Amino acid sequence: MRREFNIGYCLLAMWVCLGFSWANAQQLGADAQGATSVAQVGDCVALSFLDSRDPASVQMHRVVEEAVGLGWVVRTVDMRRETHLVERWRVHTSPTTILVRAGREVDRILGEVNLLEFTQRMIRSSAADSLRGVQVTVPSTAGGLVRHQSATNELVRGALVPMRPMQSVASTTAVASSTGSSIGGGEAARKERAHRATVRIIVDEPSHQAVGSGTIIDSQQGEALVLTCGHLFRDMSPNSPISIEVFEQGVPVAYVGQLIHHQIEEKDIGLVVFRPRKPVDVAPVISRGGGLREGQAVFSVGCDQGRLPSVRDSSVTKLNRYLGAPNIETSGAPVQGRSGGGLFNDQGELVGVCYAADSQLDEGLYCGTEVLYEQIAKLGLERLIEPKSSVGDVTPSKLAVQFIDAQGRVQQVQIDRPSEPLLQAIRTEAQGSSRMR
């Protein structure tokens, strides 16, 4: 706790010192030739973790210097010398930039980004009432900032991550019952169901608030199971509260969540449960034997910047590009807040979970379907990933079975959620009996 307060005081001191530096820079730059422009600056500050031997860090350092020139407060951290800060903020790769407001982490930028994206994310992470315009002199040789400005000389909002247009989802679209196994319906209905099964997850810490997304994959006996990414729980302590927000007619309803399991290193995946007071929609997981191919159309659902869930169309660009756990790469880099959100195929089946963005390639990274299977199997929920019934067959949630016992009496038992092998055996037996007649 004492270290967290020290970090806060350091950031405050940085703000004051860099304020004087910025005043001096304005005076020195007044004599230089260049275009006068207006930029927005807010109360967000940044810690940029850099490795001097990493070319990407060297380039990111230039971006940081330009951002400081605009009036932002950025503290560079030498990852090789200041290992205590690397450990404190749990930084694993370079460059990594952590955006901080009021002493709490509000966003994390992995990898190198350009000045436009850096300033946009700083603006979005600042309090709205803290934003102010400052005049800057941009040399004629540094036209990058001017090219990205609007007619009003403000940085263009919405240019952060170029993605395909957002898919509109009608709230009145009919969806399948959460207790049924058939996906059914058209494309809009499948997207609506995935949309309704998406939740917002908030992990509240004294020095950090993580906001992400998740997908409800099962609901039984008053408990709902949510699949999300693991890094949302990176800094949580045993007493950290987890809030799961379900959206009812666009209105968030919060429930207390409980973390079951999470991984961060090799596999970035997590499982959370909560107890909803009303029935919730469940997204079906792609069954074993299903798969993806490069170029296949998919869509994702998540909470951009912690807002209401939204659907984004995309396509698979690469499978297992990176070593380690199975992974999926798609077109369109997700923005902060979509971490943990689901990736779905064109049938509305969950096939992956968002865990990172590649800003340079404008692509999203999702854990592979096999990672989902592994987590589900650990909970003994193989029924969620068993092959679906063939067309025309409907898998019942309950099955009444009659049999004759050793005394010749007819007995009946009820089986909840019968397995596909059992159903197939019953169908085979029924077909055999029909042929004998």
What would your notes on this structure say?
It is a single chain. With 437 residues, the chain is α+β, with helices and mostly antiparallel strands. It has 3 domains: 2-147, 3-Layer(aba) Sandwich (Glutaredoxin); 161-388, Thrombin, subunit H (Beta Barrel); 398-436, no CATH class. It has helices at residues 2-29, 55-70, 83-88, 115-124, 144-147, 187-196, 369-378, 420-436; strands spanning 35-41, 45-50, 73-78, 96-101, 104-110, 132-138, 166-167, 198-205, 208-220, 223-228, 242-248, 251-263, 269-274, 297-302, 310-319, 327-331, 342-345, 350-358, 363-367, 398-404, 410-416. The strands form 5 sheets. A 6-stranded antiparallel β-barrel has the order 14-15-16-19-18-17. The protein has a 6-stranded antiparallel beta barrel with strand order 8-9-10-13-12-11. A 4-stranded mixed sheet has the order 3-2-4-5. It is elongated and about 90 Å long. The protein starts with a helix and ends with a helix.
Bulk shape: elongated
Structural class: alpha+beta
Number of domains: 3
User: Largest beta sheet, briefly?
Assistant: 6 strands, antiparallel, barrel
Helix share, percent: 10-25%
CATH architecture of the largest domain: Beta Barrel
List keywords for this structure.
437 residues, alpha+beta, Glutaredoxin, Thrombin, subunit H, 3 domains, 6-stranded antiparallel barrel, 6-stranded antiparallel beta barrel, 8 helices, 23% helix, disordered N terminus, disordered C terminus
